Amino acid sequence: GQRDDIAAVSTGASADTHWLSVALDVPLPGLFDYRADRPVAIGTRVIVRFGPRRMVGVVADTPLAPTYPPAQVRAIDAVLDDMPPLAADWMKLARFAADYYQRPLGEVILPALPGALRKPAAYEGARSAGGPIARIDARAAKRKTGDAAPVAAAPTLNPAQQHAVDTLAAATGFETFVLFGVTGSGKTEVYLRAAEAVLRSDRQVLLLVPEINLTPQLEGVLTRRLEQAVGAGAVAVLHSGLADGERLEAWLRAVRGQARLIVGTRLALFVPLPALGLIVVDEEHDPSYKQQDGLRYSARDLAIWRARDRNVPIVLGSATPSLETWHHAESGRYVKLSLPQRASEAEPPTVSLIDTRRLKLEQGLSPQLVAAIEDRLARGEQSLIFLNRRGYAPVLNCEACGWMSTCKRCSAFMVLHRGMRSGHMLRCHHCGAHERVPPACPDCGNQDLQPMGRGTQRLEEFLAARFPNARLARIDADSTRRKGSAEALFAQVHANEVDILVGTQMVAKGHDFHNLGFVGVLNADAMLFSHDFRAPERLFSQLMQVAGRAGRRGSGADVYIQTGYPEQPVYQALVRHDYAGFAAYALDERRSAGLPPFAFQALLTAESRELATAVTFLTEARDLPTARPDLPGAEQVMVYDPVPLRVVKVADLERAQLLVESDSRPALQAFLRAWAPCLADLPGSARVRWQLEVDPLEI
Ligand code: ADP
Ligand code: ZN
Ligand code: ZN
Which is one GO molecular function term here (predicted)? Predict the structure, then answer.
């Protein structure tokens, strides 16, 4: 056709030459030129040579001419046509994410695909048998489909739920809904009804859940309820814990429109969905929606973009919405749907503050807290003691000379851990370094080294001694390291084989504990006075969630929060179960301080062996706008001075960061688009590792 003629004339290549711009997962900006001897559609996967390596790439454009001299442009090795090209709307989502988060397109597209689809080796050799998709299909053809599961009865909706379901059913195009309701108010039931309606109209639903909430229980409920409505095989689950083959199979069923409800963690945001009709983001405030490496995206934010692009409604559900979301709900940009009461007869727990300033604590526990555990034990009810600090003690100390167990590679203490077999160990939670506890102080030889403070292990030890007849369990990242061990521990709690449960934030989410009568919260103040401006927000939502574990059935559950600062607004609001009051207060503070959601931020972080090297690079980056006054948006953007990170050294690398801020998102975006591409050319950039994060959650 016309295009081929132009290419042939202008490049001297043959009329059969088709130029391709290919996205590759390499840390270089831009796309890469290749040629093919037949037309290849945008969104097609291809195998190409890149340097000495063979890689799978995705065709992102089919230009009339390459950017390189045509003679230097290599031919692709193969077109992978075992799957239709990635759809235009999906490519558009990837392009938006790459542009918004300032990453090369290939670093967005390729990691979003199941592993098997981006490995050339999967298509090579005698055993490849037509590639991974052909193998999945052959396996699926042999498998018999199971019978539909025994039928789960749906409860009658209460008026608030009914209103929410009706409002969602009436939504015809893009609209952002905030489903605001405490734990147990029946949000999941609303998602199910809204999903059923969409599924019956032959469209797909994407349900995003936080990492830890994707339990077999939830999967079971969804499968039983929804497969009844739309048939077996309609539910697909996607998360990072799946084996490669399982993930590919679920992904293919979604792409082909066979799976109708796709439930998954943040990575499921990137599954192609030909018939998308509704997106639900459960616990939308949860930090696990933010990816913390590579493409540092917010799955919640991208989900809203995707819903807008596909013109479908989106529901953000939470008992404690992020202040960003709440701000939009209050201003009317999002539509708020409230579920003010618990759905079942269960009454909310009574929250009390234990003022520790005038109390004598025993291993960190107030007499009231100990008495409450005793009381619940006598009644045959469970207690949960929440302490967000794992290990035995945060530091080991020599009282004779003041020595502390610091990590040699990090500016942090090594945490004392009680080992299973190997005795006590010191572990660094930053770099993973570990060593045996020294028999004596390395500085003065004192043999009486003492643990300072306490973590979950020490608390468990104390409770075991204090309540010798109680059955104890501990749930934290250490006790659940082996695959399946978390589920086993939770199953014990559900089966009433545990009287006292000690846990970190891992216990706060996703699980209903039917016999839990008491929750005690230790050391919450540590979170309150963190350097991070989001700390009170996070504390409120975490404690609301922990409190919500109690009394899911019945009444009379108690929550005791130990604090030396009972007058703090966060705690006062918790006692009143008053998220809205807390949010109003916190938003006022943010507004007067000029912080998100009233400002928009990006963070440039650099690391190097020497702090000065990192700071030099960041200073060059800071001065760029001065040197280049033509940078768009610069006059509306504030670039702060470089500062060391709070934990400045991790694994022998010193870290510093530079904050970029604006009260206008478009101005910040315009600035980043011009500024970010210049960073790699700064003289100091070769001597540091750096990354840019847009909308950082932690500063
Ligand atoms: P949330 O997701 O808000 O925490 P769930 O949807 O899990 O709440 O509901 C909490 C409990 O209440 C569940 O056991 C659920 O089956 C039950 N439930 C939900 N809606 C109703 C209703 N309308 N009537 C009775 N029970 C309900
Ligand atoms: Zn000493
Ligand atoms: Zn370390």
Answer: DNA binding
Can you read off the two tokens belonging to residue 16? 């059969």
Distance 645 CA to ligand 3 centre (A): 15
Q: Is 183 in the pocket of ligand 1 (CB under 6 A)?
A: yes
Provide the H-helix boundaries in 62-131.
88-100, 105-112
pLDDT at 511: 75
| Residue 58 bridge partners (DSSP) | 23, 45
Taking the centre of ligand 1 as the mean of its atom positions, its distance from the CA of residue 187, in whole angstroms, is: 7
* Cβ burial 341-364 (10 Å sphere, 16+ → b, else e): bbbeebebbbbebbebeeeeeeeb
DSSP 8-state symbol, 560? E
36 pairs with which residues across the strands? Answer: 18
Q: Is 114 in the pocket of ligand 1 (CB under 6 A)?
A: no
- Is the CB of 545 inside a 6 Å radius of any atom of ligand 1? no
User: In this structure, are strands 689-694 and 600-608 parallel, antiparallel, or unpaired?
Assistant: antiparallel
* Two structure tokens written together for 402: 């003041």
Close Cβ partners of 17 (under 8 Å, ≥ 6 residues apart): 4, 7, 8, 11, 35, 36, 37, 70
ipTM for the predicted complex comes to 0.96
Main-chain phi, psi angles of 41, to 5 degrees: -75, 150
The pTM assigned to this predicted structure is: 0.93
Q: Is 398 annotated as a binding residue?
A: yes
Question: Strand, coil or helix: what is 49?
Answer: strand
Measure the CA–CA gap between 73 and 56, rounded to whole angstroms: 17
Query: Residue written as tokens 């801020």?
Result: 661
Please write the tens of the pLDDT for every residue from 178-232. 999 988 899 999 999 999 999 999 999 999 999 876 777 788 888 888 887 788 8
Alpha helices in 495-610 (DSSP H): 525-528, 535-547, 569-575, 579-593
